[in-house]
Every structure is written in structure tokens, then in C-alpha cells.
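User: For a teaching handout, I'd like to show students what a predicted protein-ligand complex looks like in C-alpha cell form. I'll give you the sequence and the SMILES for magnesium ion. Please answer with just the structure.
Assistant: Understood, here is the input followed by the structure.
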Amino acid sequence: MTQRYILHLDVDAFFASVEEILDPSLKGQPLIVGARPEQRGVVASASYAARAFGVRSAMPTAQALRLCPQAIVIPPRHKVYGEYSARMMAILSEYSPLIEPLSLDEAFLDVTGCQARWGPSTRLRRAQSSRSGLGSPEELAHRLQERLEVELGLTASIGLAANKLVAKIASGLEKPRGFVVVPQGKEAEFLAPLPVEKLWGVGEVTARSLHEMGVFTIGQLAELPAGQLEARFGRRGRDLYRQARGMDDSPVVLEREEKSLSREITFAEDIGDMQILRKKLLSLSESVARRLRKRGLRGRTVKLKLRYSDFKTLTRQVTLDVPTDLEQVVFDQAGRLLDKAWDRRRKVRLIGVGVSKFAPEERQLSLFEGTGEEKADKLRRLSQAVDQIREKYGDEAIQRASLADGDRDEKSKMR
Ligand SMILES: [Mg+2]
């Protein structure tokens, strides 16, 4: 395979940095962007001055303020961040047509063609090349970092490698203003000392299994034979085997569409009542399904997220045979996941539901078969009618409490 140059760019403390730009008096101060502790909010972004006190993203604001009482808390302004994100992506798009945004402040760029693009074969290219000093992917990456800082006031960290997996890990290693280049062929060596948790798809559960096998670093993982990993982790074992060696040939894909749709809610008070959780889950499922239909999307994976009162967070997901945009299906699956996942000993602080793995439109119809197709069509017509009424008269016009009760009956029947 020919050498690829993949760059991963991630803005440092994005929300907090934007707030500092808009109000320079905040510069250098411990700053937390997030909901207030009395709203039981969490830290969305923290400035490096706040991180010095141990403040981290996703930490409850109340806990962050115990670590750093003098921190200034600012509620997030997503519209402004969206504008900065658009300006940043516009700059990135000058350097490569192949950009894959991962979030507002993070993207992959395939800059493999940049030498041809910026090379000295035409006058225009020569002019641009000499002006910006672009030649190698490394120079391009430096230039990008510099432009974001000069033109937007944002610092970013960059990882440059032969693939996405390694580039992303590299960009996170030396934040802020990180710049880590991993030469082709040095991937395994680069990854070896890092903890296995750095790899894609190694979550809490997989990490625990690996730890039980005495594997803590990626280097230790790379010593395990493929057969042993496959026996332990199934098909994912093969991915682990490849990732441990820094192998990844996934392409940078232009991804304008959302990859998942989700909704979650943090309760004002922790909930220990299944019926209340199910009611919430129903309204979240409705909301997600309605947004799916609005965008003409159907998803194959339904995901449940739970956060306990002690902040332990877990996600569970299920893959459907037929992609869906129906609240009945989303709720049914999410409800089952809740039933299995919730330990009932701990109260629930947050619950969320999401749908992902969107299937292209044309493949979807043929997947419905026999009575299943009829039923799904009927449900879809009903859902669309409800959407129209709500569009016209507002969300409160129709309540689907009956769905929750009906489902409960069904479940007690199942038991
Ligand atoms: Mg970032």
C-alpha cells in the first residue's frame, strides 16, 4: 500500500478557549464551561489553568468547584462554538478536500495528495507553495496550527501518521499545542508503551478483560498471538491484534451527516423508580425517533446510557435486524436494555437513548418482510401523523403515555 499521510487535529480546550477570545480578561484564569452545580451540571470544557487543579471534562461542576473554588463557571454557548467550528473547518478545507470532522473542534485530514496539490508544477501552486512554505505534510501541519492561532486565536494539537488510529492517539499525547509525528513503520514502537485504553474500542469492559490477562500496555497486547485474542474476544480480537501493531487502513471519509442521534436527561433528583425511568425513556425515544424521521434516517443500533448517582456511567447497545425510525422499536429495545443493565441498588442520575449505524434509504425497504413490513408501515404512518399534529399544535398535543403502559403489560407477559 502506498504511504498515506493522515493528520488528526484537535483544538485545545475548545469551548473555554473561545470564551477567552470573547472576553480576554478570562485569559489565564481557571475557567469552566458547563452548567452550574445547582443544576447538577457537568464540565463541558475547562481551561488549562483549571485543569492544573485536576478539573476534567465530564466531571460534575460541583466536584470541579471543590477542586478549584476560584474557577469561573460559564454556561455553554453552542451557537458561538458552532461559528468558530465552521471557520476552523473552512481553513482546514483549504489544505485537503478529504476532511472528516469528528466533532466541532476535531477532524481527520488526508493530506497524502498535498505535495501534488501544493507542489511546484504550476505557477499558482508555486505561488501558494512559496507563500505558505508548504512542501511536506509536516510543514502543512505546522502551517495549519499557526493559521488557527493567528486567524482564530485557537491553539490546536496535531498528530501526523500513516493512518487514523495512530494520528489520533498522537495528537492527544502532548496537549496543548502538541505536535507529534509518527514516521511510517514506527507505529508499533510508538504505541508500545501506551496503555491499552488508548486504542479504539477498548472500553472499560475490554480493558478489564485485558488486565485480567496481564495486558496493560499496547506493547504487551502486541505480544499475544492472534488465535488467543480471537478465542477471547471473537471477531474483535482480530481488530485488537491489528491495532496493537498500529495497523489501520480505514479511509478518511467526508462525513457531513450525523452518525448518531441521541437524547439524554439529567434528573434534578436521582431516580430509583423503574416506572419513572421508563416514562423518561419513552419520551426520549419519541424525541430521537421523530428527529430520525425528520432527517429520513433509520438506524440499526439502539443504545442506552445510564449514569448512577455515584457517577459510574454505563452504555449498552443492541443491533437490530431491520433499521428503524420508530419510537415503538427504539423504546422497546432501550427498555429491555434498561431492564438488564440497571442494578436497582443504585439510583439513576442520567438516562439517555441513541440510535446509530444508519442504513442507506434504498436498502431499507427490502428488509421488511411479510407481516413485519405491514406492521412497520402501519406504525410509520401513525408516527408520521403524530409528527404532523405536533408540528402544527406543539408537543403537548398528543401524549403517548399509553405506549408505556402497553409495553409494561407486554413485558409482564413475557416474564
Ligand atoms: Mg478538543
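For the handout, you might add this sentence: The first strand starts at residue 6 and ends at 11.
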